[in-house]
Amino acid sequence: MALAAGSKRPKLDPEAIMVKVMQCSEFRELSEAYLSDELLVETNLRVFGHMESCPKCREDFAARRALRSRMREAVAASPEFAIQPAFETRMTARLREEALKGRGWASLLASPKMLVPGFAVVLVMFFGGLVGLRMLDSGSIVANANTSLSAFLAETSAKAAGSHDHCALKKMQRWESKEIPIDPAAEQTAEAIAEPIRASFASDVEILHSHDCMYEGKRFSHVIVRRGTHVLSVFFDREGKAKFASDGGGHIVSEREGGMQVASFVAPVGPVFVVSDLPEAENLSTARALSDALRGRDSI
Q: Global pTM?
């Protein structure tokens, strides 16, 4: 439409143009690249300008960033992604031996015997470097405590599985006969464990016993329940509460120990271990139900 005679063209605000151009749909497409710092400076400014003016996209971006940070921490802390100590020791010794022979890195990696492990080391270093850079970019560095916690959970999971076999299964006749009464405080703990399992699976859960026990030097508070034909042990490491504590809702580590499924997590009451012969998915679901129920509770 033509301007009327004598009228002036209205002045346009450059910042308003920038925000207008960046639509919410475009922001959603670019947000992941923005998180990874993969955009040009000009595009970064447009994304930032849109977030300043759009509360919904700003909230969505904050949720994406929090989710990415939790996923990185979970992967970095998972024992599945750690190099096995035995492999690392053999590899280090072999590399040192070949280096002392003066053959050089090129011939070393070209050796048929070293091709696969050498390539594996290169991949580990490459992807480890990428993960490290991304973590630095996001301003989060995985603390040594994560490694310590992973090692602790792995070691204690094996003891929990052993205690389940030694204390729950092999003494089942004693628990079924009710010859040993349950202490009132221990019974309260057992009820707090059985209730979320009942609610989660809509099935009856029988409390067999609740007590403290010792296995291979590790003291547990031990709750034994039965769901259908499956016997479950829930162990609380109250001594570990002083070293490892969480407000709950964190990731759950699943392992197979001694033919049993072991799911472990850290709650406000301390590290918790769920042991059973259930399928892995059901054992994990049981652990998740307990993790949610124990969130925010520093005693049980």
A: 0.52
